[in-house]
């Protein structure tokens, strides 16, 4: 069946035919550039703004890596950051330190950012749970009502 834009139902977004395979998804973040540098024993240098925030390319990589570490190491069952063990927090710091050129003064900032990321995940889970129990579609506005449209069968 053709849609109004001339594409058949069998075509996927990337133009390939759907042969019953699973939908293409983004998958896990790999950050291959960081992995390569780390395997070579190198670290990424960071630039900071006047507020002490990491900026530029290294700053983006720092934020991405920290988010990935938090999502992959902190259980979804943890109710809050306070429930995360000191050992787990130390593992997060060690992994960030082995990837980025960080001194000990950056530890408090890094752990605090991980705490914020964890809280964002908690908030997202709460919103999703609320919407799943209410039966509404998350982020989907109600379709407009079009009375007696000539385009509707």
How would you describe this protein?
- With 153 residues, this protein is mainly α.
- The chain has a domain at 32-129.
- It has helices at residues 32-39, 56-73, 86-99, 106-134; strands at residues 47-48, 54-55.
- A two-stranded antiparallel sheet has the order 1-2.
- A hairpin with a 5-residue loop joins strand 1 (47-48) and strand 2 (54-55).
- Helix 2 runs antiparallel to helix 3, helix 2 packs across helix 4 (106-134) and helix 3 (86-99) crosses helix 4 (106-134).
- The longest helix has 29 residues, at 106-134.
- The two termini are 16 Å apart.
Strand order within the widest beta sheet: 1-2
How much is the radius of gyration in Å? 22 Å
Residue ranges: pLDDT <50 for 5 or more in a row? 1-18
**Which descriptor suits the 3D outline?**
extended
Mean pLDDT: 75
Order of helices and strands: HEEHHH
Q: Which range best describes the helical content: under 10%, 10-25%, 25-40%, 40-55%, 55-70% or over 70%?
A: 40-55%
Into which percentage range does the β-strand content fall?
A: under 5%
Based on secondary structure, the structural category is mainly alpha
Report on the biggest sheet.
2 strands, antiparallel
Distance between the amino and carboxyl termini? 16 Å
Number-wise, the strands total 2
Provide a count of the helices: 4
